[in-house]
Amino acid sequence: MSRRDVLKVSALGAAALALPFERVARAKTASKIAESKIPRPYTLPFKVPPVIDGRGGGTITIAQKMQNAVILPGVQTPIFGYNGITPGPTILARRGTPLNIAVSNELPAKHPNWGYEAWTSVHLHGSASKPQFDGYASDITRVGQTKTYQFPNNQESRTLWYHDHGVHHTAENAYMGLAAMYLMSDELEDRLPIPKGSHDLPMVIADKMFAANGSLMYDDEGHSGLYGDVMLVNGQPWPNLKVAKRKYRFRILNASLSRGLRLQLSNSAPMTVIATDGGLMPKPQTTVQLRVGMAERYEVVIDFAQYAPGTKIQLRNLGVPNSRDFDNTDKVMQFEVTADAFDAANNDVPAELNPQNEIMLLDETKVPGIKTVKLDLHRSNSTWKVNNTTWDDIVKSNYQTVVANPQPDEVQIWEITNKSGGWFHPTHIHLVDFKILSRNGKAPFNYELGPKDVAYVGENETVRLITKFAHQTGRYMIHCHNLPHEDHDMMTQFRVGTDTVDNDPMTSAPAGPIGAGGGGVTVIPVVNTSTPATPTATPTAVPTTAATTATPRPATTTTTRRRR
Ligand code: C2O
Ligand code: CU
Ligand code: CU
């Protein structure tokens, strides 16, 4: 054989070997349930969670409950839900109108499968809430207790989300379903001709895995991360959304515990990003690929005007390093263009959105004596740490240790470093919005040029950001939003200004027993949220009017309390 033939044969041999090796090396699914129970992608309709309109202020009551949900067709899956559904109800709020939410913990005393005590703490992610209403991890509400949270709604319009933050069980509680959207609007947003009403849709993306009996499986591989094989959008596996020939606004939230996403349309059409975690960007930015780490929010406008009715376009996930892929985790959902008549109002993206955003105008060269705070993210002795400390160290200090103590309204630079090549850490700073200045000295992605509260700190990266410690004083958490990392124990805190009796996260507003009215509010039992299974082809979500126009989430069924 000539040398060339040898090369050919070995190339063939390598190709022949590659296939079975690939099959062995790559698990097809993570779930243990029969494959026939998992729906084929794009066969189920897009759904949106029901809406609670809190724009008038006052107090909303929400119960955290375990209920059975139908996530896989014909399969009952016990979930933890705000009002027993997941995602929980989308709450509408208005800038300048504070809103109270009385949350009762009516979960089973112990998780039926995993045995832990189901204490909770509610965090409104994206809100400058006071420390005692910020879901401080150790400020827990035990089963049978309630707590009334006060949300000031004093920032610019944005896509927030509320999710559990109970110490050491944030990951399990959020994975079980305690996560939902909270949309705050304002006059600036009202004035913009961007898609609204039924053309403004939430897209809560999360991966799950299912045990043989249909319950959710939890495996975080020694607190490394949980990677499910079933991709849900608003609680529905790989849905199909019928769209009219116009622009739509999607409020993308990566609510996965550990899976990073890199989204791209199947036809590689550009997407127009109009808002980041902290609301509208100064200017829209177009991109073909959008990386979305856990807890990041991006509002994206996609224009379907150019497509013939019947065209199908998929939203794909190209994956990120150090997230485990399965056969269908490269698929998220599908858009199916229709010939339907549509309302052509608010079908635009202006060249400027929020050019005066205060955070995006911050300039380190204009702040004499600006301080730089450094955070180092790493793992040692199989524990995740920030600056070599854990949340347990904070607890041992009676919640006093802090990594920074900015004065009210102080502007600082923070530098977050991840020296590991094997992990990425989407790092969240509570209370503030920030501007990402650089990543390893290079400019951030164009779609990151908006106010952020989570920074994707990739493998061997240092992210430099600037922020202003406005709105409140007191102690706030900083943590990795890979929730198994956060729980074990990559979380620390900072203090703005000084502590007072009115801003102590542990003692200013502790939970009280249900019925006694924790926080001085009487808790009204929540009505049964069960609705008949009526899949809807066309979403009518995120109504700008009353909650009654919301599409109910179909197929939550009767409560099954499995106590032990
Ligand atoms: Cu989205 Cu401290 O969390
Ligand atoms: Cu937060
Ligand atoms: Cu992490």
UniProtKB/TrEMBL annotation:
It comes from the Bacteria. Residues 530-564 are annotated as: Disordered. Pfam families: Cu-oxidase, Cu-oxidase_2, Cu-oxidase_3. Residues 67-186, 229-310, 385-498 form the Plastocyanin-like domain. Gene3D superfamilies: Cupredoxins - blue copper proteins (2.60.40.420). CDD domains: CuRO_2_BOD. Belongs to the multicopper oxidase family. This is Multicopper oxidase domain-containing protein.
